[in-house]
Specification:
seven-stranded mixed sheet; alpha/beta; 17 helices; single chain; six-stranded mixed sheet; 3 domains
Length: 568
């Protein structure tokens, strides 16, 4: 008996059986489905947009089923997606494995039919820009179902153009050799040159800021200005900002679909690499936005967490930030499919077991539990330190205030120390304590704390619980206010709201009006009366004398024994 040799296994053969037709396939005959799936077997020469034979097959079948048919083709000429729409449009499916990096296109071109002689529609051109496709092509057909003209558009990397795309002259079905690869390479080279010009500066990322607020225009602009300061504090280059006033935010996209399209086009023209929303995005909104726009998308909370992650120096600070990050990311851990599933082993296995998503979530929960345990031990250490201070009768003064108000500078000037103080948001994350001796031989502990901010992320507040607990034992709070900041009133309200949340609103407090050297003397005097505070310049020790006297008076009025220092 003659044994037939086994055919050589081709790796790509596996994928032929896994390919499916996307979109509106309801009501199609089995033969039509099979013909659609057969498109996956076709190959297009790299220099061709598509072949005449494939164009005829697509048009013929599209006319037969009275629906638009589209294909997504990679640069090797392989059909990666086959899509069926309705009589007016197709919907491009999620193409997560194809991501457009800065200065690069997606690596896919879309070719689809129109049932009329219509050219590229507005939806076609929007999809081209949103998804950063290599090309968008439309095949118009005659009543017999034969291709007539093929209309092609591609992205142009030039700034200050009304539209980010260019339309090519209509192609005849018999002349489809347009040297596709060379054209795409030229476009990407130009995109790379545009990006390289931007990257020549100090920033590595270009940020586009977005606000969709129901607040007044002034409030929205002030919040966006603070977001801009936050972005610049970690060396992001802010290239533009977009605002939208809405009575009610969109539950799916936060901003309107039309606004999102405009945002995507602006990001393309300005070569943006990240989009930052001023409002917190829920997990479903992040997924919906990133499905439509090929850029990194973060919100205000994640930006603040990233800043904290960069600035934390001590072990405690790093633990606190990591805990906050994990709690924020846990509900946002998603996967698109179960391809990474692990099979349960042994007897009684029931198919796909623990998915990659479940593994990631379990590991995140385990890490959160470990971090909370480590921070609990930190809390115990702090309690021991408090007990030692209490035995010595030392009073505690805590410096609080909005971020970048000048807290660390004030501590340095009062105690002649050298705590890091920079003119940027959240320059100080790790609390610093120093001894301070008053003129009347009274010694206290004075502590610099992490700066507050509007809408401080709750996860971050919980993570920094051990640090904020220091405020509970403070005998006096110094509320440092930057009176040169035009938003000082909103900053005061934000700080006092956090104090109220911590049940510290009844703790003795002195309002310290810092940066008086940046305002006129009349303004300083007026604000001192209005805010019932003491105007100072934290860099000038002379201006601190009234503050020091008031601090000692407040401390001496507190109950309990004070630590005095006897002169030798």
């Amino acid at each position: 008996m003659k044994i037939r040799p086994l055919k050589k296994w081709r790796p790509e053969a596996k994928f032929l059986f896994l390919k499916k037709t996307y979109g509106n396939t309801a009501g199609l005959k089995a033969n039509q489905i099979k013909r659609l799936e057969h498109f996956y077997r076709r190959r297009i020469p790299p220099e061709f947009l598509l072949t005449l034979e494939l164009a005829r097959e697509i048009c013929r079948l599209s006319r037969e089923i009275r629906r638009q048919i589209g294909i997504l083709v990679n640069r090797r000429g392989k059909v990666c997606f086959v899509i069926v729409g309705d009589n007016k449009k197709i919907v491009i499916p999620h193409t997560g494995e194809y991501r457009a990096a800065p200065g690069r296109l997606k690596g896919l071109r879309c070719i689809h039919t129109h049932l009329t002689s219509e050219t590229l529609s507005e939806d076609d051109l929007t999809d081209l820009a949103l998804l950063r496709l290599d090309m968008m092509a439309v095949i118009s057909s005659n009543p017999e179902g034969l291709p007539q003209k093929i209309h092609v558009a591609h992205i142009i990397p030039k700034k200050f153009r009304k539209n980010p795309y260019e339309l090519l002259p209509p192609l005849n079905p018999g002349n489809l050799d347009i040297d596709c690869l060379a054209l795409i390479q030229a476009l990407e080279d130009e995109l790379a040159r545009v990006n390289s010009g931007h990257e020549a500066g100090s920033s590595t990322e270009r940020a586009l800021l977005v606000s969709a607020s129901s607040e007044t225009k002034r409030q929205a602009e002030e919040s966006l200005a603070e977001l801009r300061d936050l972005a610049r504090s970690i060396n992001l280059e802010v290239i533009a900002s977009v605002t939208q006033q809405r009575k009610k935010s969109d539950s799916r996209l936060l901003i309107g679909p039309g606004k999102l399209q405009d945002l995507a086009i602006l990001a393309l023209q300005e070569a943006a690499t990240v989009i930052i929303f001023d409002q917190e995005l829920n997990p479903s909104q992040i997924r919906s936005i990133t499905d439509q726009i090929e850029l990194k998308v973060i919100d205000r909370t994640q930006l603040i967490l990233d800043i904290f992650a960069q600035r934390a120096q001590t072990r405690e600070g790093k633990l606190q930030v990591e805990l906050a990050q994990l709690k924020y990311l846990l509900p946002r851990l998603v996967v698109k499919n179960t391809a990474m599933s692990r099979l349960t082993g042994g007897i009684g296995g029931r198919g796909p077991g623990e998915t990659k998503l479940e593994i990631n979530r379990r590991r995140a929960r385990e890490r959160i539990a470990g971090l909370e345990k480590a921070l609990f031990s930190v809390t115990k250490q702090r309690q021991q330190q408090k007990a030692k201070r209490s035995k010595k009768g030392l009073r505690v003064i805590s410096i609080i205030g909005y971020t970048n108000a000048g807290k660390s500078t004030l501590l340095n000037t009062l105690t002649k120390s050298n705590v890091a103080a920079e003119n940027r948001l959240f320059a100080t994350l790790d609390p610093s304590s120093r001894r301070l001796r008053f003129p009347r031989d009274v010694e206290v502990i004075i502590t610099d704390t992490v700066g507050f901010i509007k809408d401080l992320p709750n996860d971050l507040r919980v993570a920094f619980r051990a640090t904020l607990e220091e405020l509970e034992d403070a005998d006096l709070l110094l509320h440092v206010i930057d009176i040169s900041n035009p938003r000082y009133e909103e900053q005061i309200k934000s700080v006092e709201k956090i104090l109220a949340d911590l049940n510290l609103q009844n703790t003795a407090t002195i309002r310290v009006l810092n940066k008086m050297d940046r305002v006129s003397p009349q303004t300083g005097t007026r604000l001192s009366r209005k805010l019932k505070g003491i105007a100072i310049s934290a860099r000038s020790k002379v201006t601190l004398l009234p503050l020091i006297d008031e601090m000692q008076r407040k401390i001496e009025n507190t109950s309990g024994q004070l630590t005095t220092i006897n002169e030798p």
